[in-house]
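# step 3/5: fold
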Amino acid sequence: MTPDGHGAPLAVWASAYFAVVSFINKTLVIAELEARKLRHDPTELFMRAVQPTLWLLVFGQVFSRLRGLPEGKYSDFIAPGILAQSVLFISIFYGITIIWERDLGLIHKMLVSPTPRGALVLGKALSAGVRSISQVVLIYILCLITRVHLSWNPLHLLGIVFVVVLGAACFSTFSLCIACLVKTRERFMGIGQLMTMPLFFASNAIYPIDLMPPWLKVVARVNPLTYQVDALRGLMVVGGVHQFSIALDIGMLLAVTTGLVLLGARLYRNVVG
């Protein structure tokens, strides 16, 4: 300790700083390793293009004729919801990767490495976000075809990418937690398919919350997808009306993602049990 007594606190701050930097570096390494897998099988990204194409080009045109939906062009309303849907469908099955890694014996090697479990979970979540960025490009191309009034504000575009990555991290981490509990591919796929539709339809993706029955409004307000759609609707479409503030939307997604990363880090060891 220095004579003035500040040596110990400085050492504590330095230790904490290096610990944080080490955690971030290890997280980014895991994210990079996971993202590299796309080079071996990029067809997944093209296969994921089918569903949003159908929703925007077919259902969007049909639903625009229904009464009670938001005024104006329905494609403007549904486009952010379809982007969020694409991110959800990519992310919700991402947890199966750790089941494959367990069967290949890779999980054991990761768990005995000095990499914190939180970095393992967060790194995989970020790689799911990288995969989802391709959906932004795809949806924007489809929106140009359907003449959606898109916002090209650079800050809005950056915000859209951030919200998409954050949403993908949220749902992929949720998927990882499920995979740690069920441990088998068949059961995981069944639960994943069971969860996607309720999450999607119990949100504001294809209809506003005001049209929902009271009980569904409660479910929608605790559904993270609702806040992702709301943020995208405010950033993506010119004059897009969002029910909550962008700060609340991002804050809710951050809070849920943080909680799921912490839960996933605790459950990660169970996948080898």
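# step 4/5: annotate
The radius of gyration is 21 Å.
# step 5/5: archive (pending)
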